[in-house]
Amino acid sequence: AQKVTQAQTEISVVEKEDVTLDCVYETRDTTYYLFWYKQPPSGELVFLIRRNSFDEQNEISGRYSWNFQKSTSSFNFTITASQVVDSAVYFCALSSGPGGSYIPTFGRGTSLIVHP
Amino acid sequence: DGGITQSPKYLFRKEGQNVTLSCEQNLNHDAMYWYRQDPGQGLRLIYYSQIVNDFQKGDIAEGYSVSREKKESFPLTVTSAQKNPTAFYLCASSIGPNTEAFFGQGTRLTVV
Predict the structure, then answer these.
(1) What's residue A93's pLDDT?
(2) A47 to B101: CB separation less than 8 angstroms, yes or no
(3) What is the C-alpha to C-alpha distance for residues B83 and B80, in angstroms, rounded to an integer?
(4) pLDDT at A91
(5) For residue B98, which residues of chain A lie inside 8 Å, CB to CB?
(6) What pLDDT shows up at residue A102?
């Protein structure tokens, strides 16, 4: 079975603060894929990043960065110098196989509120 | 533009009625999914299809049905057997099951 835990239900910050969204995953498979998605108020989920289990290199994209640590089964997401437009619900997802058949399982999401 | 189109955006259903939510994609993706989103619950998988004419139950398939007669289309029917259908429904597609998914804008279903 595969599981994703996003323990932070809601985070509130003031603009320009840095914020880290936590994601802890569980899987018995050695091959798996991790994802982050953003859901703005409009409702449509937007893909942010995909990482496979064999690539632990951290990634930076503008103000966004991701820290993948297999030792702690975590795939955390940091937004640097947050902006009001970052306000959204963020989902972490995991797909693994063959037990999970590579069908993605989502966490419960973290609602980020950035105040001006 | 390529993408996923869900319709309608808002849907109201009387108790005891079946309703069908539409999902169409022109991305030439093989895999399609239906998720249900409730406040604080995240996304829960209802059904998925990895190829035309084949689909599998997800975690909460009871009270729902789907079909996949065409690659582009994956409609979801919410039947009267679904006791608590009020929710936000999201359709998604992907090249394959381990690749990123593209989502539609969702359908908000309310039972009146």
Answers:
(1) 96
(2) yes
(3) 7
(4) 97
(5) 33, 95, 97, 102
(6) 76
List, in order, residues 6 or more apart from A33 with CB less than 8 Å away.
A50, A51, A52, A53, A94, A95, A96, A102, B98, B99
Roughly how many angstroms between the first and final C-alpha of chain A, as a whole number?
41
> Of B103, B108, B111, B107, nearest to B7 (Cα)?
B107
In this structure, are residues B103 and A44 in contact, taking their beta carbons and an 8 Å threshold?
Answer: yes
| Phi, psi (rounded to 5 degrees) for A70 | -65, -30
Instruction: Average the pLDDT over A51-60 and give the result.
Output: 87
CA distance A92 to chain B (A): 10
The tens digit of pLDDT for each residue in B59-77 reads: 999 999 999 999 999 999 9
Eight-class DSSP state of B70: B
Identity of the amino acid at B1: D
- Residue pair B6/B103 in contact by the 8 Å Cβ criterion: no
Compute the distance between CA of residue A97 and CA of residue A33 in angstroms, rounded to an integer. Answer: 10
Phi then psi for residue B55, to 5 deg, are: -155, 160
Low-confidence stretches of chain B (pLDDT beneath 50): none
pLDDT at position A100: 55
Q: In one letter, which amino acid is A18?
A: D
Q: Do A91 and B43 touch (CB under 8 A)?
A: yes
Residues of chain A neighbouring B91 (CB-CB closer than 8 A): none
Cβ of A50 and B99 within 8 Å?
A: yes
Question: In the structure encoding, which two tokens stand for residue A44, read together?
Answer: 């449509």
Please name which of B21, B25, B1 lies closest in space to residue B102, comparing C-alpha atoms.
B25
